[in-house]
Amino acid sequence: MNDFKEIEPGGRPFVRAYLEFMLWFVGRAIQAASKVDDSVRREFAELPEGFTFALTAAPAGPSMVVGKDNAGKVKYLGRSIEGRNLNVKMTLKSMEGLFQLFTFRESTPIANARDRLFVEGNIPEACAAVRILDIVQVYLLPKPVAKLAIKRYPIWDLKRHSWNRAMVNLRAVIGF
Fold this sequence. Notes:
By secondary structure, this protein is an alpha+beta fold. It is built from seven helices and five strands. Strands 3-2-1-4-5 form a five-stranded mixed beta sheet. Helix 2 (38-46) packs antiparallel against helix 5 (123-140). The longest helix is centred in the N-terminal third of the chain and has 24 residues, at 13-36. It is globular and about 65 Å long. The N and C termini lie far apart (60 Å). The model has no long low-confidence stretch (mean pLDDT 89).
């Protein structure tokens, strides 16, 4: 019986690299949207000073941490959740669940309904974080893809769809 070799699953390096890039870019886009979009600013204004939230995959998948400092500025704080005082931690059960979310085959409400998303922290603050993620996804994605990623596609004026979208993308790429 000891003749069988234990087989370990592969690490899926391309999936991990894609998710790390997407989380990095979305984190920077949240920071950029907080400077450009009034509704994102309002969502963050209602959150407490020093608020920090993270989106991650269990058990040791990629992460994104975004926080609001005491002056009210929103910053992308990096990939590491170790040693951080998080107000809200949204964890997907696996890297596969996070991949479903960021390949836009599944929206956040669907992931929650399918019991793939766990939230640690206050529910109203987690809902605000999801609303912010939805707004940012509308800015980053073309309309047909964004309709798959969020629950309802918003009706925005032309300035918000064009100018704000360009500014969010530009600021996310440049990093300011």
